[in-house]
Amino acid sequence: MLKLCAIGVSSMTKTPPRTKTPILKFDSINVIYNEGKPNQVHALKDVSGEIYEGEFISIIGPSGCGKSTFLHTLDGLIPPTSGTIFVNGSPVHGPDRDRAMVFQDFALMPWQTVYQNVAFGLKLEGKPDRKIRDRVMHYIKLVGLEGFENKYPHQLSGGMKQRVGIARGFAVEPKILLMDEPFSAIDEQTREIMQEEMLKIMLHEKKTVVFITHSIDEAVFLSTRIFLMSVRPGQIVDEVKIDIPYPRTLETKALPEYQKYKQIIWNHLKGEVRRQYRKGEA
Amino acid sequence: MQKTEISVRSASLNNKVKRIPPSISYPMVTLIIILVIWELCGWLNWIDPFMFSWPSKILIQMWDFTLSGEVFKHLAVSAIEVSFGFAMALIGIPIGLMMGYWKKLELAFDPFVTALYTTPMIALTPLFVLWFGLETLSKVMMVFALSIFPILINTMSGVKMTDASLIKAARSYGASEFQIFKEVIFPSAIPLIITGIRLAIGRALIAVVVAEMLSGNVGIGFAIRHASELFQTAEYLAYVVVLMIVSVLLTELLKILEKKLAPWRYH
After folding, report:
1. CB contact under 8 A, B174 and A101
2. Residues of chain A with C-beta less than 8 angstroms from the C-beta of B187
3. What per-residue string of b and e applies to A149-174 under the rule 16 or more CB within 10 Å gives b?
4. A56 domain residue, yes or no
5. Rounded to 5 degrees, what are φ and ψ at A66?
6. Could you tell me if B264 lies within 8 Å of chain A, comparing CB atoms?
7. What value does the mean pLDDT take over residues B57-62?
8. Does A172 sit within 8 Å of B165, measured CB to CB?
9. Cβ distance of A152 and B267 shorter than 8 Å
10. Is residue A28 left, alpha or beta, with left meaning phi > 0 and alpha meaning psi from -120 to 50?
């Protein structure tokens, strides 16, 4: 694996303690859709890596590179054609309580109120309402939606809907939060504020996050490490460690090293996008 | 201080009286204009009372059969026939749910359901009379036969139109197949189930009236046929008006039910 750190950012020495078992480990994951048929698609190829507790990992890559497929595979929604995913050392066989997903299109139940949507995962576990009430309200407050518990999703703005989606993810109190381009359907101004809020919540709740985005800016701003993916078949071709201390605020974006990280990632992505362009897929 | 409060209150009261929504006031004006012109045509002897009638004559007929209680006798019988037939037709909901959920069931039965839905089943009335007799049962069965298919077909498409991303979300949060059905597929099908019920009510009314017209000696359909056979055109039209009122009331009732059952669509 080519080390991008050598290109110019000096402060890439601090690595997470590798003595611990990784909270999430994936070992040569392959996902092939319609295997053996003429419309076979090799979506992910030999994707391996390790993620440690408390990390904020962004996955960035050209569109159609299999980022979403990868996240769905980590969640257990898509079984890998080959390879294994381990959470705290035990293999994954399907969706589980230790991972929660936040979706790009929010995927809120339109017939449920904000409260019911946030409680969705807990209700599925069969917990009675009085037992989960405090917890649900805690996360509604955390995402700043207090007072909106009884509204239906269509009464909320895009940003508020996604906050419901995030609260729903938090409410099941997972170890790992998987977020699939959660802010892409939200307007620019709201997105910046939500990124900042997101970081605050993450620091407060101490979660491990795997975050998909195609915004370089978003990835650099949020992450401890960024995985770069290639065009199809999707592979993790590199990773960049972002050594900017938390808490990060909107002022962080003005730092010179922030710009340098953006440049590094953009240079890399440019090559990938060109390759895809030549293949006639972009 | 007190004075201003009082004046504010009376102003808001006034507003309430004045504020009839245009969705009611506009059609009311249209209706009144039509009725007045129609009535005038009657007074000017432009209408042959043997061929047609006019509002005041129809109203008098309605007043008469309301006082005598005649209309209630017919309405009660028709209502019972519709209620039983319709209650039976609600079996279309579970059948539709199953057909929407299990692809194989749909493949096996969908062409026949569609064929039966599009066939003017009202043509089967004589056969139903033959099978189920001249009395109530044949009408109940007609109502059932006509109203089950819109319920079934709409329920089925409601299930099939469930947003795939919602199912994915439920699965991701650990829902079992049964929970996915109960928490996602069924609630998302409710609006279309109600649409099916609304279509079915229209067909149920047609079924009961036609069946009573063709056979029977009581019920709104029979009353209409009877009056028309005696060339009591005003009375005949008065019964038609009753039918109209009943179907408008039923539709409105269903709208209220819809808001109760699917509040997320109406805020």
Report:
1. no
2. 109, 111
3. bebbbeebeebbbbbbbbbbbbbbeb
4. yes
5. 100, 15
6. yes
7. 93
8. no
9. yes
10. left
Q: What pLDDT, in 10s, does the model give residues B225-254?
A: 999 999 899 999 999 999 999 999 998 898
| CA-wise closest residue to A250 among A210, A197, A213, A184 | A197
pLDDT at A11 over 50: no
Give the distance from residue A274's alpha carbon to the nearest chain B alpha carbon, in angstroms. 31
The ipTM is 0.84
- Low-confidence winner among A20-24, A260-264, B149-153 (lowest mean pLDDT): A20-24
| Record: contact B190-A111, CB cut-off 8 A | yes
Any alpha helices (H) in chain B, and if so which ranges? 2-18, 22-43, 55-68, 70-89, 92-101, 103-118, 125-132, 136-160, 164-172, 177-180, 186-214, 220-229, 233-261
**What would the mean pLDDT of A204-228 be, rounded to a whole number?**
90
Q: Is A126 on the interface with B (CB under 8 A)?
A: no
Domain count, chain A: 1
Tokens coding A172: 């099941």
B96 vs B108: CA distance, rounded Å: 13
Q: What is the spatial distance between Cα A130 and Cα A83, in angstroms, rounded to a whole number?
A: 42
A273: its two tokens: 């996008």
Assign B17 a pLDDT band (cuts: 50, 70, 90).
Answer: low
Q: Report whether pLDDT(A172) > 70.
A: yes
pLDDT for the residue numbered A253: 86
Contact B169 A101 (CB under 8 A): yes
Per residue in B83-112, pLDDT (tens digit) is: 999 999 999 999 999 999 999 999 999 999
Q: Is residue A45 part of a domain?
A: yes
CB nearest A107 (choices: B165, B179, B264): B165
- Taking alpha carbons only, the member of B127, B113, B222 closest to residue B157 is B113
Question: Is the minimum CB–CB distance between B267 and chain A shorter than 8 Å?
Answer: yes
CATH number at residue A271: 3.40.50.300
Nearest CA in chain A to B166: A107
- Phi, psi dihedral angles at A231 (to 5 degrees): -65, 165
**CA of B156, closest CA in chain A: separation in Å?**
19
* Cβ distance of B165 and A120 shorter than 8 Å: no
Residue A267 lies in a domain: yes
Which of B165, B168, B173 comes nearest A172 by C-beta?
B173
Tell me the per-residue pLDDT of B186-213, one tens digit each, with 9 for 90 and over.
999 999 999 999 999 999 999 999 999 9
**Which residue range forms the structural domain that includes residue A224?**
21-89+219-282
* Cβ atoms within 10 Å, residue A103: 24
**Residues comprising chain A, all counted:** 282
Helix, strand, coil tally for chain A in percent (to 5): 40, 20, 40
Q: By the CB < 8 Å criterion, does A127 face chain B?
A: no
List the single best residue of A72, A124, A172 to mutate versus B (max B Cβ within 10 A): A124
Give chain B's domains with CATH numbers. 2-43 (no CATH), 55-265 (1.10.3720.10)
A173 at B interface, C-beta within 8 A: no
